[in-house]
Write a structure and sequence with these properties.
Length: 1098
């Protein structure tokens, strides 16, 4: 590899390097200790350790070439090589292309400049085809060289970044280098002759977390397949952990969520994955989640600044975050103040002329935001003005006016006109009012105490609106949170849910979308619509709104429209309960966009077949219980109790367990704080019932205690009629159970657990997602093994090992063959056996690793025939059961001698069944080839054949007679056997046995044909048959090739399966060869170790 010319002091270098070649201008050196017998002794050992610890290029490049300047101690390193062949190639190139030219220069300085320019030109030419696009490409090229040399992974495996760290082997830290690539976490260390090489695939990691203890102040813990690995001594551990988290998430999405992966142009091409790109992606995800923005938004810029808060009269310090369509601000204390400004709302952007470096953004509603102490504020203003101009034209399809002041036309007027037009067109089918407004209108004339409190709440919010603004650009402060905790007024609930969830932005960006989807989805009939119809009457059945066709029809439209929009989710139980509550307080279109916000952003992966998102948040909940309620953790022997109890809490946001008048207050907090509100409330509920739970003797008693508690949760300020309130139906008689007000419970949850940061929840979600998915995969594996073990004669341990190899081969194809048209990626909706399937190429690789005949010349043909045999539905894919049956019936394993006879016949019957539906070309060859391999200890051939025939007759309905083997198939069969025996110690005796079998079969056929047609002109053919009986496959082939020239009335000779089997069993050498026991355990271990190396660069 050519290197960027750097100065080397040869005086010190001679202690570590030995000269191999030299001339007037160049020196070729070898690292001391490399290539010497015994490793160069103690000196070589110390040099090797020094190279590994100090990240020396010499560790993987023990040869180098220096350019020497005459009469100087300073040399320039210009090339390095991993082996003698590589460095010799560079040396010869220099002699042929550079040496002749150097003689024409007059000065040493000109010579040096020429050499440097030439080498830099070579590096630039190589860089055109290189993946090294980092900040320091030269350093990255060296790291890439080491990565390729140490691990030998395929060249498609892209190195993302690398770090110096220590790997803890027991209690001993080993200093080395951690390499993060698109599919693997790799570590290499060399200390005092001890080499450590570690390769872990990202998809195999079940736990990834930052830990600390007495010995390790801060380390990264990686758990893969039950093995724990600890890495520490990072210079920037947070940055390293973030990248590892992103790469693990990338692998999980690519393998287990193919649809999302394919829709992401960045993830779809592994070569586009970079360190900077992954970091930006992680920051964008956190940015979108915190501010509830659409997933498509990408964080572009972040500026430290101050925001003037007019109603509090102070500047709050924080960060201004800018994406394609939004300007957002969050104070350092996220609860103190935050603002979201859609660029569609911006009217003007100005800068101040004073020294405050301020940017003033004016929005609709006569509101202005002042950001001060902004670095490079002039360039920022220019960029924002350009963005707002582009955004304004986007939202002005009809008018060409671009608003520049508060007197300009409202930029959302056209959007509202389009939306209203679509609503009028569909007014007959889409409700334009919330169901609560229709079924429970407020009567201002009869105000009771509850209605008065409700009006006081409304007044409090109106005061807040006057101070902080109203709408999407309002200030969100601690006061806002306090009002949400008290409960949002009924009349404002729909508006504020839309605002806090971010659904208002989705609806504004997609005017008329809902009406179109409703029209397209009406009348559709599929599994989702059938499930929706079944659950419509189960959604808040006690509420009058859903006892009428108005509410039921609205619920049907919203659920059907969402199933049409997102067929990946379609419909999941619990969506009906959530949507019915949304429809009570929001207009129908608003309820649809609220459902979109919940399912696709706020509760990702909750509403699918495996409810992975809910399981992840339950794992987060268990982690929080261990941290905040340790006494409860010590009392409960099994933490899965909390998962089983809390599943409905998360799926329905407590709507299914709390009375409706109390549950809506929980939904208020959820839309403001996200999943954090649900986790906090769950902790508060367990804390409130802590003494009762500690007194419970079993899970059933604990569940009863929690249900009794939920029945006694009330909302004393709810203005809903008593006929609707569920809590009012509970008897008010004297009871030992104390009533709990939901407002007090929510306030307590905020006071006790409000210090839980969203960043921590995000990190716990990422960490537990790996664990949940690996747990689900383990469940899938156990179910597959349980089914397969009933039909395949392998032990559970052997099947387990085989499944790991099978699945890993499939994943390797996902790593480096993303565009394969045949491969079917993981689909959890399929039966367990069909979730993972391999194609012919993958089967060929596994066949070569596991087959006892992998050394034969025609191993590819054997693999192809076997695959066709297994692929009964001809879809070019086989599942694990089919694959394991092939291994079980082609591997000769050790079996109990007392069961040898019976087992062999079962295997032969199995093979005969497989051959029935296969093309004739492979049928007979495979039948005859495989069947005798299983025969054991046969003494009486006639008795065995008679028993075989009886068993075939008994299963006449399922097993058809195997067709006879014709000439060309018999020739191919003979060739196959010859190739199988090649290289065997008993090769000569096996060849003789095959010659005898071939001769016997041909003579039997000749006699049979003479008996059936004695007058036929068979003399020529008989002679040919007699000649072909010698043990030469070429001689057997020649007369057979003349057969097509014989008269048409002469039928071609052929053999029955029984004839071939009987002839083969008559030869002890053949029986012994196919009965030879194979150590399957060793075969599997060897396959696991060589599975990856078989793909490495040669």
């Amino acid at each position: 590899m050519w290197l960027k010319p750097e100065e080397v002091l040869l005086k010190n270098a001679l202690k570590l390097w030995m000269m191999e070649r030299s001339n007037d201008y160049f020196v070729l050196q070898r690292r001391r200790g490399y290539g010497e017998e015994g490793g160069g002794g103690l000196t070589g050992l110390l040099v090797g350790t020094l190279d590994s610890v100090l990240d020396s290029t010499a560790k993987v490049a023990p040869f180098r070439i220096l350019h020497q300047t005459p009469d100087s101690q300073v040399y320039l390193s210009i090339a390095c090589g991993a082996n003698r062949e590589e460095i010799t190639k560079h040396w010869e190139w220099l002699e042929e292309n550079i040496m002749k030219t150097l003689s024409v220069f007059d000065s040493n300085e000109d010579i040096t400049n020429f050499v440097q320019g030439k080498i830099r030109g070579l590096i630039a030419e190589e860089g055109k085809h290189s993946f090294a696009k980092e900040d320091d490409p030269e350093k990255f090229r060296e790291a890439l060289l080491k990565f390729e040399k140490c691990f030998g992974l395929p060249e498609q495996e892209k190195l993302v970044t690398y770090y110096s760290c220590s790997y803890w082997k027991g209690r001993v830290p080993c200093q080395g280098w951690l390499y993060l690539s698109t599919n693997f976490l790799s570590f290499y260390s060399f200390l005092l002759g001890s080499e450590i090489k570690l390769i872990i695939s990202w998809d195999a990691i079940s736990k990834l977390e930052k830990t600390s203890n007495v010995i390790l102040t801060e380390s990264i813990h990686v758990c893969s397949q039950g093995e724990n690995h600890y890495f520490s001594m990072f210079l920037h551990i947070n940055q390293t952990y973030l990248l590892m988290e992103q790469l693990a998430s990338y692998a999980i999405k690519r393998i287990f969520d193919k649809e999302t992966f394919d829709n992401d142009p960045v993830l779809d091409d592994p070569l586009q994955i970079t360190k900077r790109g992954l970091e930006n992606r992680a920051h964008s995800e956190q940015f979108n989640a915190f501010f509830r923005l659409p997933k498509e938004e990408t964080l572009k810029e972040v500026h430290e600044c101050f925001l003037w808060v007019p109603f509090s009269h102070f500047n709050t310090h924080g960060k201004m975050c800018i994406s394609e369509n939004y300007i957002c601000f969050a104070s350092r204390d996220g609860n103190l103040c935050s603002v979201i400004i859609p660029l569609r709302e911006v009217l003007a952007i100005d800068e101040t002329n004073d020294s405050s470096k301020s940017v003033i953004i004016s929005v609709k509603g006569k509101t202005a935001f002042r950001f001060s102490e902004v670095k490079e504020f002039e360039q920022l203003v220019a960029k924002l003005r350009l963005k707002c101009g582009a955004t304004s034209t986007q939202y002005h399809d009809i008018s060409t006016e671009v608003p520049v002041s508060s007197d300009s036309v409202d930029p959302s007027d056209d959007t509202e006109v389009q939306s209203l037009t679509c609503q009028r067109e569909c007014s007959k089918t889409v409700n334009t009012e919330a169901l609560m407004t229709v079924f429970h209108p407020q009567n201002l004339e009869t105000l009771d105490s509850k209605m008065l409190k409700e009006k006081m709440k409304e007044q409090s919010w109106n005061i807040l609106f006057s101070e902080c603004g109203r709408g999407v650009s309002m200030f969100r402060t601690k006061k806002t949170r306090d009002l949400v905790v008290r409960g949002i007024p009924e009349t404002l609930r729909g508006e504020l849910w839309m605002l806090f969830s971010g659904a208002v932005n989705d609806m504004a960006a997609n005017p008329g979308y809902y009406a179109e989807v409703v029209e397209q989805s009406l009348g559709t009939c599929n599994l989702a619509t059938e499930e929706i119809e079944r659950d419509l009457r189960r959604s808040l059945p006690e509420h009058p709104a859903f006892q009428s066709d108005t509410g039921i029809s609205a619920l049907r439209r919203v659920l059907t429209a969402y199933a049409f929009r997102n067929p990946k989710i379609g419909y999941c139980q619990a969506m009906n309960i959530l949507t019915s509550v949304l429809l009570l307080y929001a207009k129908e279109e608003e309820a649809f966009w609220l459902l979109v916000a919940v399912c696709e952003r706020m509760l990702p992966d909750y509403f699918n077949r495996r409810i992975i998102g809910a399981l992840v948040d339950q794992a987060v909940f268990e982690e929080l219980i261990r941290d905040h309620l340790p006494q409860l953790t010590e009392h409960m022997t099994d933490m899965t109790f909390f998962s089983s109890v809390s599943l409905s809490w998360f799926l329905t946001l407590f709507i299914s367990v709390l009375p409706i008048e109390s549950a809506v207050n929980v939904v208020d907090c959820f839309f403001y704080d996200g999943i954090k509100a649900i986790l906090q409330l769950g902790l508060a509920i367990l804390d409130y019932n802590l003494d009762k739970l500690l007194a419970c003797k079993d899970d059933a008693e604990a569940v009863t205690a929690l249900n009794r508690f939920f029945n006694n949760v009330t909302n004393k300020d709810s203005p809903l009629p008593s006929s609707v309130q569920q809590g009012s139906n509970v008897s008010d008689e004297k009871s030992s159970h104390i009533r709990v007000d939901i407002t007090d419970l929510i306030r307590e949850s905020n006071e006790k657990y409000g210090n839980i940061l969203y960043e921590d929840i995000h990190s716990m979600r990422c960490r537990n997602r790996l664990y949940v998915i690996q747990t689900l995969e383990e469940t899938t594996k156990q179910n597959v093994l349980r089914v397969v073990s009933q039909d395949v004669k392998l032990s559970l341990h052997e099947l387990d090992e085989l499944y790991v190899i099978f699945k890993k081969e499939l994943f390797f194809s996902y790593y480096w063959c993303l565009s394969s048209p045949v491969l079917k990626h993981h689909d959890p909706s399929l039966p367990y056996l069909e979730q993972y399937q391999i194609d012919c190429q993958q089967f060929r690789v596994l066949y070569h690793l596991l087959s006892p005949w992998a050394y034969s010349a025609n191993r590819d043909s054997l693999a192809l025939w076997t695959f066709r045999l297994l692929d009964e539905n001809s879809d070019c894919l086989i599942n694990f059961k089919e694959f394991s049956s092939a291994i079980a019936y082609t591997e000769v394993q050790y079996k109990d001698p007392s069961k040898g006879d019976e087992l062999s016949k079962e295997e032969l019957l199995y093979l005969s069944q497989l051959h029935v539906s296969k093309p004739a070309k492979e049928k007979e060859a495979n039948s005859a080839k495989n069947s005798p391999e299983k025969e054991k200890e046969k003494v009486n051939i006639q008795a065995y054949l008679s028993q075989w025939q009886d068993e075939l007759l008994k299963q006449e309905e399922n097993i058809k007679d195997l067709p006879r083997m014709n000439q060309s198939q018999f020739i191919q069969f003979s060739k196959t056997l010859y190739n199988l025996f090649h290289g065997d110690p008993e090769e000569e005796s096996l060849y003789q046995a095959i010659a005898v079998v071939t001769n016997l079969l041909l003579r039997m056929e000749e006699v049979g044909r003479k008996l059936h047609s004695p007058t036929s002109a068979m003399k020529g053919l008989s002679g040919a048959v007699c000649v072909s009986g010698v043990p030469s496959e070429g001689q057997a082939e020649k007369p057979l090739e003349k057969e097509p020239t014989s008269p048409r009335e002469e039928p071609q000779w052929s053999f029955a399966f029984e004839q071939i089997l009987a002839s083969l069993l008559n030869e002890p050498a053949l029986v012994k060869f196919f009965e030879k026991s194979i150590d399957l355990k060793a075969k599997l271990e060897n396959a696991k170790t060589s599975q990856l190396s078989s793909r490495t660069k040669k």
